[in-house]
Design goal:
heterodimer; A: about 350 residues; mainly alpha; 14 helices; about 75% helix; B: about 290 residues; 2 strands
Amino acid sequence: MKRGLRLPLEVFAVGLAFLFGMLVLLVAGYPPLQALFALFRGAFGTRNALGQTLTQATPILFTSLAFLLGFRSGIFNIGVEGQFLVGAFVAALSGIFIRGLSFPVHALLALFLGGLGGAIYALFPALLKVYLGAHEVITTMMLSYVALYLTSYFVNYPLKAPGWVAQTELVASSARLPRILPPTQLSLAFPIAIGFAFLVFWFLERTVPGFSIKAVGMNPEASESRGIPVRKYQVLAFVLSGFIAGIGGGGEILGVHGRFVDGFSPGYGWDGIAVSLVGRLHPLGCIFASVLFGMLRAGGMVMTRVTKVPLDLSLIIQALVILFVAAPFFIRYLGGLLRRRRML
Amino acid sequence: MSLSLFQAMVRMATPILFAALGGCLCERVGVINIGLEGIMLTAAFFGVLVTYVTGVPLLGFLGGLASGVAWGYVIALLTVRFYGNQIVVGTGVNVFGLGLSAFLSQKIWGSRGASEAVQGFESIWVPYLGEQTFFVYLGFILVFALQFFLFVTPWGLRLRAVGENPQAADTAGINVFRYKTLGVVVGSAIASLGGLFLSLGHLRFFAWGMTSGRGFIGLAAMIFGKWTPVGCLLASLLFGLADALQMRLQALGILPSQVILLIPYLVTILVLSGFVGRATPPARYEPYKKE
């Protein structure tokens, strides 16, 4: 406590991950500093770069909020990816097949229906957990694969638009979320995501259901004996988690792609798990963490183009962030080692 | 069932079986190992890499196995020694395995998609089982060895005890941390055999994400098998059969591949929620903190 400045452990974790990443580059024979520089420039260097970073951050912010909501109630919703995909799919269908609505109504309705799709998809594992005791980590993981292959089937066969690419038709223009920083792909989905972060913050801190969800997550036995229906709130948290994930998927379709493209998600749902941890499981922390991961994705592409460093370096750094954040005592231990070294 | 289908079932069950056995050992000491997929992928990659460099599949095998042991130590260090969240650590392992193998594949072979072909292991013919690599037979031997080890030997009892009731085990003078670490390291090493089977026994090259969810299916097989090695074997054979059938159907072109590919996952969910009833793991997934 004597040290005046105490940075959160997450900052060390991220720093350490980057350090390790640079080490990997050095060992593999790439220029680490040049790659790092290209990564940052590609992420924040220009107005377009910034737009691209925030575009990448948007779906991750949604999925991290989704994971966080489940986690706070003691549920490991590992399958955010599946709910994200179902939401995207439903939103795309709503954008294509619902006709005769004008712009804000159509887009918002499609977005909402996407969220609903995600919520319903999360309801299955929620009920399976609460009533049959099926561990949600396994069921949601399996359901993610089911969603992946099922949507892939639909866009490859019955709903495939003419042409070579496995994708649906374009959604109606009235269902598109407008771009807010042309020529980048940044769309209205980004401010909506930020809005959701504040909404989740308010929900958890200022409402009775939000408080109950947190109580259930911290101590289910105590909550039960205090008369809080644990099952009900776990199901609620699960469904809300799926809802936000679904909105995220919808936002990605209506804002960026305009149609459901097979394999459009490089695993945004899985990123969300890491992002919410780096964001200290706090909705507002998720905003910063998602920008960090968006930077890795957007900047990583530029880095690959400029320095020929494989894009997967971003993935390695991400994984290291996850591993370090998972074990805060490890970071503390390393910190202790360094401190002792300095004293000697 | 035709003989060739039976042989395909046994072949496809093998990687799932290794994953299930590895996961089972980890869970017996109270660690849920979500990272099986990443461990297998890493082993598959290093198996091919070492074989590519040395030209000796046996060295590749040892290299891949070493990567499994290394992962085991890292996971044990983070979850047992430093009380890290097991599911998050496992997720990290999976992402790392995918990233590292693709990164190095790009660097070494100039493609993140697939490596160059390497020399693999020769098949050994056995009546009824047909031409199979030694991995298949190793898998069967391991099942019975582990079943014996876990339920007959005193070491197995201690291993189960540190998972089921660490406090009591500690009081009885068992080194909880050592046994937990042992379970995770050996479990991860066994899982890595699954990856090695895929890259050195089955395909003889490394392909991006070539484990394609078999680590997760292995986890499901472990649950379906109620956390016993023999149960893991039976469940793996079932999933192996699904895998073998899927390849048949795909070859015939009756069903679109996506529909067939999702069947094992759907079966897993059904199995988890219906057939086995309440599946209770033998140990709670909690780090043990000494008072």
